[in-house]
Amino acid sequence: MKLPPITKTYGSRGVLDLPALELEDGVIHAVIGANGSGKSTLARILAGVLVPDGGAVPRTGRVGYMPQRSYPFRMSVLRNLRLTGAGRDRAMAQLEAFGLAGLARQNAKGLSGGEAARLALARLLMEEYSLLILDEPTAAMDVAATLLAEELLLQYQARTGCTVILVTHSLTQARRLAGQVLFLRDGHLAERGEAGELLRHPRCAETRAFLDFYAL
Amino acid sequence: MALASSVIALAAGVPLGVLLGSYSGRSKRALVVINRTLMGLPPVVVGLVCYMLFSGVGPLRHLRLLYTVTGMVIAQVILLIPLITGSLEAHVSTVAPDIRETALGLGLSRTRILLLLLNESQYQLVSAYLLGLGRAFAEVGAVSMVGGAIAYKTNVMTTAIMNYTNMGAFTTALALGIILLAISLVLNAGVALLHWRLER
């Protein structure tokens, strides 16, 4: 999957300035970097909800996107999962897998932050996409829920073969899930490479400083 | 009359409020300022304009709406639409970005997104309607100018209170005032009850 150069500015402030990129099909790409490095902006642009300076990025195939603040709609948890037209049985099976079956009839507005995040991921993974973009999908989850979500994401990715953009603050999560890592700093691509290699032996001093800071 | 004008204003104000709230174009601020200005429209000004339009020398005189209930309803609808639009706009503006982004991420259509926005605004819908109804019940300036407070035809509680006060019948005027206040209390209690049920 080829991406054109992407720039985004708000007034005179540039928030993203990336060169043309090629993403490996069927691979999970973790996007890491400090706050304000442009990770979410990149995710929103690729998802088509934010238009970069040069016009919308051409989309190939179906794109699924889970924003940082994914919204639990004011309806039952089960109905949330059926929004895209899925049948009741399939939706119930998905809730079962995500450990939410007991909450199927409850209004999604009453869920805790972690449950709402699980619902958002479960709802998104009801459909198949060629590109899946997840913006900090497990930030609100506890350890057990995070590991479950990661396992289900890996299963989904193996089943559908989709390309995944995973914005995350968790370097251990990037190590567990990603095949490729893109490290952003101040809106620029500081370094990219194979996940195991980049996280163990970063070439760029900025990446090394970032990894040292998080004591990986 | 208050029921008719509030229902008509709701039918017009809700779509306008949802569209304005979910709109993120450059002219949004200007449109919001215009609507907020209209929210403060003095009823007597609306009454005056309607009077001039419907009176014997007005451009709409052939409709024969002066001193009719229909004319009063039109004046009230003009007053209420900005109120309902503004009430919905304020709520939708706060939830629309997250709803829109989540729904687009799921590949939902624009129509579906608008329906979801309406669904998320259930409480505000009822609240906006009751706000409009309360205003319609309490309004006096426009309806007295357009309706003329004709007994058994266009005289409503607020204009009756004004007439009784002018006649010195303060007890009757006060009794009508208390009834209006009681209606307002019931409406507000209804909103509070609904809010409580929706939050459960």
List keywords for this structure.
heterodimer, A: 216 residues, alpha/beta, Rossmann fold, 6-stranded mixed sheet, 8 helices, 10 strands, 22% strand, globular, B: 200 residues, mainly alpha, MetI-like fold
Brief digest:
The complex is a heterodimer of chains A (216) and B (200). Chain A has 216 residues and is of the alpha/beta class.
Describe this structure in words.
The complex is a heterodimer of chains A (216) and B (200). Chain A has a single domain (2-70, 128-213), classed as Rossmann fold (3-Layer(aba) Sandwich), CATH 3.40.50. Chain A has eight helices and ten strands. Chain A has helices spanning 39-47, 77-81, 88-97, 113-124, 143-160, 171-177, 195-200, 205-213; strands spanning 2-3, 6-10, 13-18, 21-22, 28-32, 63-66, 131-135, 163-167, 180-185, 188-194. In chain A, a hairpin with a 2-residue loop joins β2 (6-10) and β3. By secondary structure, chain B is mainly α. Chain B has one domain: Orthogonal Bundle (MetI-like fold), CATH 1.10.3720. Chain B is 79% helix and 0% strand. Chain B has helices spanning 2-22, 28-39, 43-54, 69-105, 110-120, 122-138, 141-147, 157-167, 170-199. In chain B, α2 (28-39) runs antiparallel to α4. The model of chain B has no long low-confidence stretch (mean pLDDT 89). Chain A binds chain B through residues 44, 47-49, 62-67, 69-71, 73-75, 83-84, 120, 123-124, 127, 133, and chain B through 95, 98-108, 112, 116, 119-120, 122.
Topology at a glance:
The complex is a heterodimer of chains A (216) and B (200).
Chain A: E1 2-3, E2 6-10, E3 13-18, E4 21-22, E5 28-32, H1 39-47, E6 63-66, H2 77-81, H3 88-97, H4 113-124, E7 131-135, H5 143-160, E8 163-167, H6 171-177, E9 180-185, E10 188-194, H7 195-200, H8 205-213
Parallel strand pairs in A: 5-8, 5-9, 6-7, 7-8
Antiparallel strand pairs in A: 1-4, 2-3, 9-10
Chain B: H1 2-22, H2 28-39, H3 43-54, H4 69-105, H5 110-120, H6 122-138, H7 141-147, H8 157-167, H9 170-199
